Amino acid sequence: MKETLKDLGRQVMTAAKISKNMKSYYVTTPIYYVNSDPHIGTAYTTILADTAARYQRLLGRDAYFLTGTDEHGDKIAKAAAAKGLTPQQFVDDISGRFRTLWPQLYVMPDRFIRTTDPDHRAVVQSILQKLHDQGDTYFGEYEGLYCTGCERFRTEKELVDGKCPDHGTVPEIVKESNYFFRMSKYQEWWRDYIEKNPNVVRPERYRNEVLGYLRDPLEDLCISRPKERLSWGIELPFDKNYVTYVWFDALLNYLSGIGYGDNDDWQERWANCEHLIGKDIVKPHGIYWPIMLHAAGLPVFKHLTVHGYWNFRDAKISKSSGKPIAVEPLISVFGVDAVRYFVLREMVVGLDASFSVEAMQKRINSDLANDLGNLFSRVAKLIGDHFEGTIPVANHGEPELERMLGELRGNVRMWADEMKWHVLIEETMQFIRATNRYFESSAPWGLVKTNRDEAATVLRNCVEALRATAILLYPIMPGKMTDLLTRIGEPIQNFKLEQTAWGHVRTRAKMKKGDALFPRLEETEVRTALADYIDGGKSNVTEQAAPIARAATDGMISIEDFKKIELRTAKVVEAERIAGSDKLLKLQIEIGDEKRQIVAGIALYYTPEQMIGRQVVVVANLKPAKLRGEVSEGMLLAVKWDDKLEILSTPEHAPSGAPIS
Ligand code: MSP
Fold first, then answer.
1. 309 and 381: one domain?
2. What's the average model confidence in pLDDT over 88-114?
3. 481 alpha carbon to ligand 1 midpoint, in Å?
């Protein structure tokens, strides 16, 4: 095995050999199907894993981060055929799009695995052979309901109204002779294991989901597909007429990605494996995978951490439902650091979250532009104006800020291990807000005139807080936090948590104010650039408030929609009937200085004489239309009930042309 894999020209692992005193950390994302482009949903798990790896490095661990693409199976074969491409051409293209997107999000995997990689194929075949040799597989016939979207058989119980709950499609009935893996044999072992290690699947609701699957007898897993139906897969080592079932193939990426069987490091990495997945794929990861591992004689992962969905307009963001929100436009409007910040701050791992451009803009302006960015520019400006841009010496520290920082530093490991990024971010921002209050109440801009030493102390203390914050938030915003650290004269290096302690600022380092670190985003700019993703304010609701807010806003328009309608007062100066119509009056009106003609359906209620001289309300920005050959450049507002109609009037002293808001 060792030799074969080496000969296969596999990608070389980039991580250095694990040093004895550095604990290993291994984090994975699902490998993404290449039947659609990446979107904010797939980007989320990947940002999460990248952030986890970066925090663990900050905490001194040797982190290895694996992501990649899942390239075999029915779904891909069908998508390739639909485009008139061979599966290989098709997967090369889309897999490439994932690979080029990740660096744009500062996502830096140690390896990007593809299930078409030769070393992966070798691992899959070797594990299959092992299970086959030890009698854990058998050949048999099966008939079941197959969902191509999920690439798995679904039980009747899992369907909703006969349809797959994730894809909304009716599964196909598939009847075939195939190889099966004796999953049922290990069901008891896995249930006991979870009971003894309750945290292995987290948060709790997903552990309960897994235990739910284990309540009924497990069906054995069909692990092959006949080549005559599907040839796009990894050939079974013991029967060349079959390829491997795509999930069995895909799950093994977590082993091949660390060089299973091929180097000395994989076992230590494997012993510290953290899987991150979305809630759509709990069953393959929470049932098939641990049982496959156990049967292969391997320990199970350390944790399977499950997050919820990003929803948009009440539907999961995906290719098949809702809108696949692309990441590039968000990066170009908000900037990559802010996009990472937003998704990590907004989603509580385990719960769903609503995506909204409005919420994003609000969050970035308040936390990043105001609280963090502004503090930095104010401090930098004062140091520039009064201390020649050199970070001054402090006479004393600031006990409250030092206490808060101490607490933060003490909790980082726990938050990082438990994937509580929203808490880590919020607590760090509370620290920055406290620093802002300290800056405001100390008023160093006044102190420089009366007590220069004290002004220096206040500014220096603020730089201490900014520096620690920049390191603490570096894993979330690597670009901007590096920029911030550079501006306060810190050489870029691999920071460790110890360096966030109070008192590490380099005295007399040069401070550079530069442009705004996080420029304030103007609403109109954001709205124009991301018009496609604006949801009329409906999406700006929290998960808890969502059901009520949704019911109450159904069919409503947003304030922005309403603002598009221009209502004005106008004066009718001439009025006449339109020949051949008993309903229409032709009115000449004045909206301020502007003269216009309006055709109104009011002839049954008003005579032309009654209209002349009247002040009315008109919709002034309607596109002109023709009625009975007459141009109408607006619409007059009236109240209608039973068989009555009365024109809306305005206060008499209001001038003609005044806007109505
Ligand atoms: N190929 C399988 C996984 C095999 S892993 C051995 C697969 N791929 S997928 O392309 O459909 O990606 C699924 C994953 O993408 C989810 O588990 C989740 O991590 C992420 N997400 C896709 N859409 C998402 C949302 N709308 N919200 C949050 N995460 C989402 O399943």
1. no
2. 95
3. 29
